[in-house]
Design goal:
By secondary structure, this protein is of the alpha/beta class. It contains seven helices and ten strands. Bound molecules: fructose -6-phosphate.
Protein backbone atom coordinates (compact mmCIF):
# COMPACT_ATOMS: atom_id res chain seq x y z
CA UNK A 1 0.00 0.00 0.00
CA UNK A 2 1.34 3.43 -0.94
CA UNK A 3 0.09 6.48 0.92
CA UNK A 4 0.41 9.93 -0.59
CA UNK A 5 -0.22 12.83 1.75
CA UNK A 6 -1.41 16.03 0.14
CA UNK A 7 -1.76 19.44 1.69
CA UNK A 8 -5.45 19.79 0.88
CA UNK A 9 -8.42 18.62 -1.17
CA UNK A 10 -7.26 20.31 -4.39
CA UNK A 11 -3.87 18.67 -4.30
CA UNK A 12 -5.53 15.32 -3.53
CA UNK A 13 -7.76 15.79 -6.57
CA UNK A 14 -4.82 16.65 -8.85
CA UNK A 15 -2.87 13.63 -7.66
CA UNK A 16 -5.91 11.38 -8.19
CA UNK A 17 -6.37 12.78 -11.70
CA UNK A 18 -2.67 12.16 -12.41
CA UNK A 19 -3.08 8.50 -11.49
CA UNK A 20 -6.30 8.01 -13.44
CA UNK A 21 -4.90 9.82 -16.51
CA UNK A 22 -1.76 7.66 -16.35
CA UNK A 23 -3.92 4.53 -16.20
CA UNK A 24 -5.77 5.65 -19.35
CA UNK A 25 -2.49 6.48 -21.09
CA UNK A 26 -1.06 3.05 -20.28
CA UNK A 27 -4.22 1.23 -21.31
CA UNK A 28 -6.53 3.41 -23.45
CA UNK A 29 -9.34 0.81 -23.32
CA UNK A 30 -9.09 0.29 -19.56
CA UNK A 31 -12.04 -0.37 -17.27
CA UNK A 32 -12.34 2.27 -14.57
CA UNK A 33 -14.41 1.62 -11.47
CA UNK A 34 -15.89 4.95 -10.39
CA UNK A 35 -17.36 6.42 -7.22
CA UNK A 36 -19.79 9.22 -6.45
CA UNK A 37 -20.02 11.45 -3.35
CA UNK A 38 -18.13 14.64 -2.54
CA UNK A 39 -14.65 13.16 -2.48
CA UNK A 40 -14.03 12.47 -6.20
CA UNK A 41 -15.71 15.62 -7.56
CA UNK A 42 -12.42 17.57 -7.72
CA UNK A 43 -10.67 14.68 -9.49
CA UNK A 44 -13.49 14.52 -12.04
CA UNK A 45 -13.17 18.29 -12.61
CA UNK A 46 -9.44 17.86 -13.16
CA UNK A 47 -10.02 15.06 -15.65
CA UNK A 48 -12.64 17.13 -17.48
CA UNK A 49 -10.17 20.04 -17.73
CA UNK A 50 -7.39 17.77 -18.94
CA UNK A 51 -9.71 16.29 -21.53
CA UNK A 52 -10.56 19.82 -22.73
CA UNK A 53 -6.82 20.44 -23.05
CA UNK A 54 -6.47 17.25 -25.16
CA UNK A 55 -4.44 15.58 -22.42
CA UNK A 56 -6.77 12.63 -21.73
CA UNK A 57 -8.73 10.61 -24.24
CA UNK A 58 -11.73 8.68 -22.91
CA UNK A 59 -12.87 7.38 -26.30
CA UNK A 60 -12.03 3.74 -25.52
CA UNK A 61 -12.46 3.82 -21.74
CA UNK A 62 -15.20 1.80 -20.07
CA UNK A 63 -16.55 2.63 -16.64
CA UNK A 64 -18.46 0.72 -13.99
CA UNK A 65 -19.81 2.58 -11.00
CA UNK A 66 -19.74 1.21 -7.50
CA UNK A 67 -23.35 1.70 -6.62
CA UNK A 68 -26.76 3.25 -7.12
CA UNK A 69 -29.73 3.92 -4.85
CA UNK A 70 -32.49 1.38 -5.26
CA UNK A 71 -35.81 2.76 -6.50
CA UNK A 72 -34.45 6.09 -7.70
CA UNK A 73 -35.25 7.29 -11.22
CA UNK A 74 -32.29 7.90 -13.49
CA UNK A 75 -33.15 11.53 -14.12
CA UNK A 76 -33.55 12.24 -10.39
CA UNK A 77 -30.84 14.76 -9.47
CA UNK A 78 -29.80 12.49 -6.60
CA UNK A 79 -29.31 9.39 -8.71
CA UNK A 80 -25.73 8.35 -9.26
CA UNK A 81 -26.61 8.05 -12.94
CA UNK A 82 -27.34 11.80 -12.94
CA UNK A 83 -24.27 12.53 -10.80
CA UNK A 84 -21.88 10.83 -13.20
CA UNK A 85 -23.21 12.71 -16.20
CA UNK A 86 -23.17 15.96 -14.33
CA UNK A 87 -19.66 15.58 -12.93
CA UNK A 88 -17.78 13.68 -15.61
CA UNK A 89 -19.46 11.97 -18.55
CA UNK A 90 -20.87 15.20 -20.06
CA UNK A 91 -17.39 16.75 -20.11
CA UNK A 92 -15.25 13.98 -21.60
CA UNK A 93 -15.42 11.98 -24.82
CA UNK A 94 -16.59 8.73 -23.28
CA UNK A 95 -19.29 6.98 -25.32
CA UNK A 96 -22.23 6.70 -22.92
CA UNK A 97 -22.80 3.11 -24.00
CA UNK A 98 -19.43 2.35 -22.38
CA UNK A 99 -20.58 3.59 -18.97
CA UNK A 100 -22.30 1.22 -16.57
CA UNK A 101 -24.11 1.94 -13.32
CA UNK A 102 -26.39 -0.48 -11.47
CA UNK A 103 -29.96 0.19 -12.57
CA UNK A 104 -31.74 1.44 -9.45
CA UNK A 105 -35.06 1.31 -11.30
CA UNK A 106 -34.90 -2.46 -11.66
CA UNK A 107 -37.11 -3.80 -8.85
CA UNK A 108 -35.62 -7.27 -9.25
CA UNK A 109 -32.58 -6.96 -7.00
CA UNK A 110 -31.22 -10.45 -7.64
CA UNK A 111 -31.45 -10.09 -11.42
CA UNK A 112 -29.89 -6.62 -11.39
CA UNK A 113 -26.98 -7.59 -9.14
CA UNK A 114 -26.24 -10.84 -10.98
CA UNK A 115 -26.36 -9.00 -14.30
CA UNK A 116 -24.00 -6.30 -13.02
CA UNK A 117 -21.40 -8.85 -11.95
CA UNK A 118 -21.67 -10.46 -15.39
CA UNK A 119 -21.17 -7.08 -17.07
CA UNK A 120 -17.98 -6.43 -15.11
CA UNK A 121 -16.67 -9.90 -15.95
CA UNK A 122 -17.60 -9.44 -19.62
CA UNK A 123 -15.59 -6.20 -19.69
CA UNK A 124 -12.58 -8.14 -18.42
CA UNK A 125 -12.65 -6.91 -14.82
CA UNK A 126 -11.72 -3.56 -13.34
CA UNK A 127 -8.25 -2.13 -14.00
CA UNK A 128 -8.46 0.75 -11.55
CA UNK A 129 -11.15 1.15 -8.89
CA UNK A 130 -11.64 4.59 -7.37
CA UNK A 131 -13.02 4.62 -3.82
CA UNK A 132 -14.14 7.15 -1.24
CA UNK A 133 -14.43 6.26 2.43
CA UNK A 134 -17.69 6.40 4.37
CA UNK A 135 -17.69 7.83 7.90
CA UNK A 136 -18.46 4.35 9.19
CA UNK A 137 -15.75 2.72 7.09
CA UNK A 138 -17.97 1.68 4.21
CA UNK A 139 -16.63 1.35 0.67
CA UNK A 140 -19.22 1.34 -2.06
CA UNK A 141 -22.29 0.84 0.10
CA UNK A 142 -20.79 -2.13 1.91
CA UNK A 143 -21.85 -1.19 5.39
CA UNK A 144 -20.29 -2.46 8.65
CA UNK A 145 -21.50 -6.02 9.13
CA UNK A 146 -20.51 -9.34 10.64
CA UNK A 147 -19.24 -10.62 7.28
CA UNK A 148 -17.70 -9.21 4.09
CA UNK A 149 -20.32 -9.41 1.31
CA UNK A 150 -18.67 -10.71 -1.83
CA UNK A 151 -20.65 -9.97 -4.99
CA UNK A 152 -22.88 -7.07 -6.09
CA UNK A 153 -25.92 -7.08 -3.84
CA UNK A 154 -28.80 -5.05 -2.47
CA UNK A 155 -28.02 -3.41 0.87
CA UNK A 156 -30.00 -1.65 3.58
CA UNK A 157 -28.27 1.66 4.26
CA UNK A 158 -27.32 2.31 7.88
CA UNK A 159 -28.63 5.28 9.82
CA UNK A 160 -25.15 6.83 9.75
CA UNK A 161 -24.97 6.63 5.94
CA UNK A 162 -28.48 8.05 5.58
CA UNK A 163 -27.47 10.83 7.97
CA UNK A 164 -24.26 11.54 6.00
CA UNK A 165 -26.05 11.56 2.64
CA UNK A 166 -29.10 13.59 3.66
CA UNK A 167 -27.19 16.77 2.74
CA UNK A 168 -28.08 16.05 -0.88
CA UNK A 169 -31.80 15.52 -0.18
CA UNK A 170 -34.65 17.63 1.23
CA UNK A 171 -34.49 15.59 4.46
CA UNK A 172 -33.24 12.26 5.83
CA UNK A 173 -36.71 10.82 5.09
CA UNK A 174 -36.09 11.40 1.38
CA UNK A 175 -32.84 9.43 1.30
CA UNK A 176 -33.49 6.00 -0.28
CA UNK A 177 -33.13 3.24 2.30
CA UNK A 178 -31.55 0.67 -0.02
CA UNK A 179 -28.89 0.57 -2.70
CA UNK A 180 -27.33 -1.83 -5.16
CA UNK A 181 -23.60 -1.98 -4.59
CA UNK A 182 -20.57 -3.87 -5.81
CA UNK A 183 -19.55 -6.31 -3.10
CA UNK A 184 -16.27 -6.32 -1.25
CA UNK A 185 -15.24 -9.25 -3.44
CA UNK A 186 -16.05 -7.27 -6.59
CA UNK A 187 -13.92 -4.37 -5.37
CA UNK A 188 -11.05 -6.58 -4.22
CA UNK A 189 -10.86 -8.21 -7.66
CA UNK A 190 -9.87 -4.83 -9.20
CA UNK A 191 -6.26 -4.90 -10.35
CA UNK A 192 -5.50 -1.56 -8.71
CA UNK A 193 -7.39 0.45 -6.10
CA UNK A 194 -7.21 4.20 -5.54
CA UNK A 195 -8.67 5.34 -2.21
CA UNK A 196 -9.24 9.07 -1.76
CA UNK A 197 -9.90 10.56 1.66
CA UNK A 198 -10.04 14.15 2.84
CA UNK A 199 -11.00 16.01 5.98
CA UNK A 200 -10.32 15.61 9.69
CA UNK A 201 -13.73 14.04 10.30
CA UNK A 202 -12.46 10.93 8.50
CA UNK A 203 -9.11 10.77 10.32
CA UNK A 204 -10.28 8.22 12.91
CA UNK A 205 -11.94 5.86 10.46
CA UNK A 206 -8.99 6.13 8.03
CA UNK A 207 -6.62 5.10 10.83
CA UNK A 208 -8.85 2.11 11.64
CA UNK A 209 -9.10 1.17 7.96
CA UNK A 210 -5.37 1.29 7.30
CA UNK A 211 -3.90 0.17 10.61
CA UNK A 212 -6.66 -1.56 12.57
CA UNK A 213 -7.66 -5.21 12.44
CA UNK A 214 -9.18 -6.45 9.18
CA UNK A 215 -12.79 -6.86 10.25
CA UNK A 216 -16.15 -6.54 8.46
CA UNK A 217 -17.20 -3.97 11.07
CA UNK A 218 -14.72 -1.67 9.24
CA UNK A 219 -15.31 -2.73 5.62
CA UNK A 220 -12.43 -0.63 4.23
CA UNK A 221 -9.96 -2.54 6.42
CA UNK A 222 -10.11 -5.34 3.82
CA UNK A 223 -7.98 -3.10 1.58
CA UNK A 224 -4.99 -4.06 3.73
CA UNK A 225 -5.15 -7.43 1.96
CA UNK A 226 -5.06 -6.02 -1.57
CA UNK A 227 -1.67 -6.06 -3.25
CA UNK A 228 -2.00 -2.78 -5.16
CA UNK A 229 -3.67 0.01 -3.22
CA UNK A 230 -2.80 3.69 -3.50
CA UNK A 231 -4.20 5.97 -0.80
CA UNK A 232 -4.24 9.67 -1.60
CA UNK A 233 -5.35 11.62 1.44
CA UNK A 234 -4.96 15.14 2.70
CA UNK A 235 -3.05 15.93 5.86
CA UNK A 236 -6.25 16.38 7.87
CA UNK A 237 -7.44 12.87 7.00
CA UNK A 238 -3.98 11.50 7.81
CA UNK A 239 -3.68 13.44 11.07
CA UNK A 240 -4.11 10.31 13.21
CA UNK A 241 -1.54 8.30 11.25
CA UNK A 242 2.23 8.56 11.48
CA UNK A 243 3.09 8.86 7.80
CA UNK A 244 6.85 8.99 8.33
CA UNK A 245 7.16 5.47 6.90
CA UNK A 246 4.86 6.15 3.98
CA UNK A 247 5.53 7.64 0.59
CA UNK A 248 4.66 11.25 1.24
CA UNK A 249 5.36 14.85 0.39
CA UNK A 250 3.58 14.80 -2.92
CA UNK A 251 4.20 18.08 -4.70
CA UNK A 252 1.50 19.11 -7.08
CA UNK A 253 2.15 18.44 -10.72
CA UNK A 254 -0.26 20.79 -12.40
C1 LIG B 1 -20.05 6.49 -3.55
C2 LIG B 1 -19.77 5.47 -2.56
C3 LIG B 1 -19.51 5.81 -1.13
C4 LIG B 1 -18.75 7.11 -0.91
C5 LIG B 1 -18.59 7.38 0.58
C6 LIG B 1 -17.88 8.69 0.84
O1 LIG B 1 -20.25 5.90 -4.83
O2 LIG B 1 -19.78 4.34 -2.89
O3 LIG B 1 -18.82 4.74 -0.54
O4 LIG B 1 -17.49 7.00 -1.53
O5 LIG B 1 -19.83 7.41 1.18
O6 LIG B 1 -18.73 9.72 0.44
P1 LIG B 1 -18.23 11.23 0.38
O7 LIG B 1 -17.19 11.28 -0.66
O8 LIG B 1 -19.45 12.02 -0.01
O9 LIG B 1 -17.71 11.55 1.74
Amino acid sequence: MRIYQTSDYDEMSRKAADIIAAQILMKPDCVLGLATGSTPVGAYQQLSRRHAGNEVDFSQVKTVNLDEYRGILRDDINSYYYFMRNHLFNYVNIPLENTFIPDGTNPNADAECTDYEKKIAFLGGIDLQLLGLGHNGHIGFNEPDDHFPTATHCVNLTESTIEANKRFFASADNVPKQAYTMGIGTIMKAKKILLLVNGSEKAGILRKALLGPVVPQVPASILQLHSDVIVVADKDALSEIDTSDATRSYSSAS
